Amino acid sequence: MVFNSRFLLFKIFAIISFSLISCNNISVENNGNIINRDAELTLQKLFEIDPDSISIYKNSAGTLIIPKITKASLMLGGSYGEGVLRINEAPIDYYSIASASYGPQVGAQRYSNIIFFMTQEALRSFRVKDGWELGADAEVVFRDKGYSLGISSNTLTKPIYAIVFDQKGLLAGTSLEGAKYSRLIR
What we know:
The structure is a single chain. This protein has helices at 2-22, 32-49, 52-59, 120-128, and strands at 62-87, 90-117, 138-142, 160-173, 176-183. It has one domain (2-183). By secondary structure, it is an alpha+beta fold. The model is unreliable at 17-30 (pLDDT under 50). It contains four helices and five strands. Strands 1, 2, 3, 4 and 5 form a five-stranded mixed beta sheet that branches.
C-alpha cells in the first residue's frame, strides 16, 4: 500500500516536472518581439471576452500584460511568466512574475494575467519598486468561462486591476502564496 501511494506521487511529480520543462515561456530565449506579439494576442482575447475592457485599457496609465504564466505544484508550487509594460499602447519595459506556494495542492496550470494601473501614482509605484507585489489597493478578477468580468470604466474604484483569465490545466488545493514582479534586463 505504501509503495503504491509513493509510486502515484512519483508519477504525479514526474508529470508536473515534464509540464514545466516543456513550457516555452520559461525559456531564456524569449525576446521582446515574441513577448510583444503574445501580449497583443492576449489583449485581443480579453477584448473579445469582455468588450468593456477596451475602455479600461485606453483609460489606464499603464498596462502590464503577461501572456503565459505556468504554475505547477505538488505540496510545494511555483509559477513563472514574462510580459510587457505598455504605456500609451507602446511597449516600455519587460517584466517577469515568479511565485512560490506551500500547502495541500497538486497539478499544473497555464493562464494569462493583465494588470491595469489606473493612476499615474500606482504606475510610478510599480516602476520604482524592485520586486513589486500586488497589494491591498488592487482588485483581482478571475475570469472563467460563462460570465463577464463585472468591471467597466464606470465601476472602477481601485488604482490597480488585475485580471486572470484563459486558464488551462488542472490545479487543486489551498496554499499560501507569494508572488513578485521584477523588471527583466534585456
